[in-house]
Fold:
Amino acid sequence: MTGFDVKEILRWLAIALFGGLALFLSIGLSYEIITHLPIDWIMALVLAFVILIISQFYRVAYICFRRQYRQLFKVAGVIGAIVVFGEIQSLLRRWHLELHPIEPSDSLLAALGHLFVDLLITLGPLFVAAWLYRFCDRLAKPPPRTPAQLSHSNL
Structure:
């Protein structure tokens, strides 16, 4: 009789946990869609966002099943980019509105200034989120092979 392989147990536990959570969320989402059939465009956007998040749980289970653990960095990059974009943007917007509230009596120049700051508040976190995803994508790639490794693989 052989001993327990802890890595294999943790692998199957991760598969069951993430796959089960994704299935649970998918069933709950399906129930909400069936019971609340009229869907407007805002609900469709929310639905697409929720499906994007749920698909990452399925992706983690599949990656663990295929033993491609480096690909987990890509999943972390997607989820991290979404969280970073949302949090940084909401913090910057709150900070801007607290320091410089928009008044109806503002001049055209002040309104253009607010528009410029809003553009920065929107695009700045987008660039940070894209950088985070690219960083995690680079971590998912295998390290480059040295010439010594390449010569041994041809033998």
